[in-house]
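Hi there,

I know you've been waiting on this one. I reran it after we fixed the sequence typo, so this is the corrected version. Both the input and the resulting structure follow.
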Amino acid sequence: MATTSAALVVTSPGATFERSTIERRELRDHDVLIDIRYAGICHSDIHQVRDDWGGTTFPIVPGHEIVGEVAAVGPAVTRHAVGDRVGVGCFVDSCRECEPCKDGEDQYCLRGNVPTYNGRDYDGEITYGGYSQTIVVDENYVLRVPTSLSYEGAAPLLCAGITVYSPLRHWAAGPGKKVAVVGLGGLGHMAVKIAHALGAEVTVLSQTLSKQDEGRRLGADHYYATNDKATFKTLSGTFDLVINTVSANLPIDAYLGLLRLNGTMVNVGAPAEPSEFRVFSLFRGRRSLAGSSIGGIRETQEMLDFCAEHGLAADVEVIGADQVDEAYERVLRSDVRFRFVIDVATLASA
């Protein structure tokens, strides 16, 4: 039998959140029912709620940074048990048959993976995310949350953490490598922590020096302001890897100029408008401009274990269910250090 779950719902672009109920499917053989404890607020939640990228299906329940406890399992589940600490990230199914899926790169499923929210299951049912009390997910897409990680600190790892961990691993950030992180927000602060833990020399590139002390605390070796034109001259040809975490258009050519021979600039932020650059900026130094999308289930578990081993978690501000609209406005003003996390228990009393 399907169950109902309290949730925060937006019914149209620009509307505010309202409390409502949604249906969660009856447990299938391999399904896990999760009582959600905390759900992180990702910038992409804001884009989709406001239909910035187009294609949002309303009503929408956002949230793909989900942590909680297993409340029930289907009869064939072997990976998780009732009471386990678990998490759910950006997708809840994939075809499992294409080459990327078989290689553990299911985030790039050729059929298209099933987003945790604002998507459709392969049977056509709309998916609803973690701004809710429960969620039902196939066991193969449920992550184990190590006991050393707090629920609230772990929640943003399911998107922000894996979004930066994946390119840092793929482009071999580590000892002897110089990594620049553009932006010190939800994604950027985790990029600094993880790159530092991997052993890279880390530089933060932010508009101003206002967060310099925090950047150093997080593990940055250097900190430069991009509103100072001298920065781009000083750092010309310096970095092996530039991770761009901001969701706004940048002067891409200027940032490509920061790369050394064979360096790569990877974009993980997602501006609503197209970006522009000159191909000649790539010719100089055989530079590459790339993008990276979250990570697969296997790599996400690896990331969680890595963060637990190194004592890494997101810096968060915990809010109640009645504060989400305000939190969205604060995110857009960059007024958060560094990630909002909803205490889902407040849904019952908000």
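Quick highlight: The chain has two domains: 3-159+295-348, 161-291.

Best,
R. S.
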